[in-house]
Amino acid sequence: MSAAGQVRLVARREITTRVRDKGFIISSLVIVLLVVGVMIFQLVAGGRTSTTTIGVVGGNPSVETALQQAGEASGTAVTVTELPDEAAARQAVSDGDVDGAVLDPVGDSPQLLVESSGSVDDIVRSAVGALSVGAQLAAQGVDLQPAPNVSVTELDPSDEDDGPAVVVALVGVVVLYGLLILFGQFVAQGVVEEKSSRVVELLLSTMKPWQLLAGKILGLGVLGLAQMVLIAVVGVTGALALGVVSVPGQLIGTVLVVIGWFLVGYAFYASVFAAAASLVSRQEDLGSVLTPTTLLLVVGFFISIQAGQDPGSGLATVTSFVPGLTPLVMPVRMAAGDVPLWQVLLAVAIMAVAIALVVRVGGRVYAGALLRTGGKTKLREALTAERA
Amino acid sequence: MLEFDGLVKTYGDNRVLQGVGFTVAPGQMFGFCGSNGAGKTTTMRIAMGLARADAGEVRWRGTALDDASRQRIGYMPEERGLYPKMKVADQLTYFARLHGAGSADADRAVQEWTERLGLADKRGERVEKLSLGNQQRVQLAAALVSGPEVLILDEPFSGLDPVGVDSLADALLERCRAGVPVVFSSHQLDLVERLCDAVGILARGRIVASGTVPELRRREGGRQLRVVVPDAGPGWADGVPGVRVVSEQRGDTVLELDPATDDQAVLAAALRTGRVTHFARREPSLVELFREAVAA
Ligand SMILES: Nc1ncnc2c1ncn2[C@@H]1O[C@H](COP(=O)(O)OP(=O)(O)OP(=O)(O)O)[C@@H](O)[C@H]1O
Ligand SMILES: [Mg+2]
């Protein structure tokens, strides 16, 4: 059996073992459901127009128009309900039938009843103001002409709104982060399982440590990629079907970028996790050796969330070149659309060097520590230990 | 030929192996004996590429073992190890495949060996659910399923019940007859004596005795006699020339004779004390040979 053939066998075992594992299947389903849930949430909460019902006591028909125009200005569809008197208004507000009720909107002292202050205040205020100005101008005999229409000229029509792309990238980074942690853990647990059960001695009598490591990382990587793609397909289909995102090209582009960065991130983190895990012999000790790397992931995650708000910030720009942080921050910056190509290439190059380094050093640690069962191996011991 | 040649291995100040060499012919069963910590496991791990010798090498058919040729060796490590959550048959198939067996061959071999080692009804069980002895059998099956050209087994019999010992012994003898050289280490010397064509005793970093059990006996030099003389007083044999008393208990005496000594002279001396109820050459057991070799 060739070296590559053995790597394939190892990879296949990783995949078949995981695919038959109930925990894995459940966690996969949960992630897919989560993505669907996020989209539905986006649809419900993130809709551009909200609706408000305002009750009116007294006034004239122009009040309704004024309220609706004021609402439109702030992106709210206003429904107006006529109410007979103040008592009915108070009742309607406290029952939640209306979001607010205006008393005497065109009189000298208009009054607004609300449960608590909110967006309704502004709508009513600007409507009352507009009515009052209109009335005063009319009293002065000014003949009001409708305001001229503003014509819009797009200077760069292809420059789409980046808002939705950033949202997609952020959702993508959440998934990417989750899968990196999940599959990093799988790699680490697998390494420790082989050590603690001592099956590693039998394995290493037929192959080199690098083959075992490569097979494990490749197998779980294929599985991780499959899961990422599954989530992407569900996500993109769902987003288009539910109308969360309107520009398919941009959406798919962003998703592909996230998948690409997932692969880069996985190569990096899986190697680090495997090397770290090889230092311990019991699952209980895993936490202590994985924490530093996990922290790096968490930091990258929070920076990328921050970058979602302000993609041009210095922090986002700098960290998008830091190995380990790149895969989380760069997709968000790229979705925001202001990253020159050379920066993307530089970030990829830096990650490639980092991965090469991690694979080399991590592979040595792994090979040195793998046969030292019992207790914890120090990093230096692993690097100087005789390798099988 | 499987040749262990001049193996040297030092751990820190501990000179574990100082030139260990022995040869196992195809179809030969070699029992590898030595006290705890003598270096048996170290020797086998070097052969399997799990430890690196400071000097010396292990050859199979004239060429030093490498990754490719090690795939044709069935190995049972001293530290047993299997995937606890994997099913017996899946696990064995995996190891057979890692050793280079094709998918169909692997399946067939797994069927056969689980049958032969009494694991037929355990094929679908996770290894962690099996008793220790049955896990041990799976471990053996893992060494055997790939149809290896060579078997290197580190204490394969420890932990087996007598039926398990028999089925393993049968399996090993059968492989041996098929021309496979088998090396196994064991502290059960009676078993080694019963099964092995050749024995090597490792002590102080070297093979201090090796050969067939009869050869070892001959090489022990002095012939031994057991003489039972119920009426004799203590020290009856002290005056006989060329004779050393090994043990004496109420007339039941073990004597060691110099090569030149005539055993008939000893018989005559015995008869002079009265009745002689037993007079025979005594074959030292492997245990005694072992003690002798290790103590020297
Ligand atoms: N990895 C290691 N590091 C340091 N010393 C070691 C290592 N492996 C073995 N030794 C030492 O080498 C010596 C030989 O050990 P080995 O396990 O080969 O003995 P053994 O003959 O198999 O003993 P046993 O019958 O108890 O299994 C022992 O003194 C042991 O402490
Ligand atoms: Mg041993």
TrEMBL record, chain A:
The keyword Cytoplasm does not apply. The chain crosses the membrane at residues 23-45, 165-188, 217-245, 251-277, 289-307, 341-362. One of its GO terms (cellular component) is plasma membrane. Keywords: Cell membrane, Membrane, Transmembrane, Transmembrane helix. One of its GO terms (molecular function) is ABC-type transporter activity. It is a multi-pass membrane protein. It comes from the Bacteria. The keyword Membrane applies. It is found in: Cell membrane. Residues 22-358 form the ABC-2 type transporter transmembrane domain. Its main location: membrane. This is ABC-2 type transport system permease protein.
From TrEMBL, chain B:
Residues 2-229 form the ABC transporter domain. Its main location: membrane. Keywords: Antibiotic resistance, ATP-binding, Nucleotide-binding, Transport. GO terms for molecular function: ATP binding; ATP hydrolysis activity. InterPro entries: AAA+_ATPase, ABC_transporter-like_ATP-bd, ABC_transporter-like_CS, ABC_transporter_ATP-binding, DrrA1/2-like_C, P-loop_NTPase. GO terms for cellular component: plasma membrane. GO terms for biological process: response to antibiotic. It is found in: Cell membrane. This is ABC-2 type transport system ATP-binding protein.
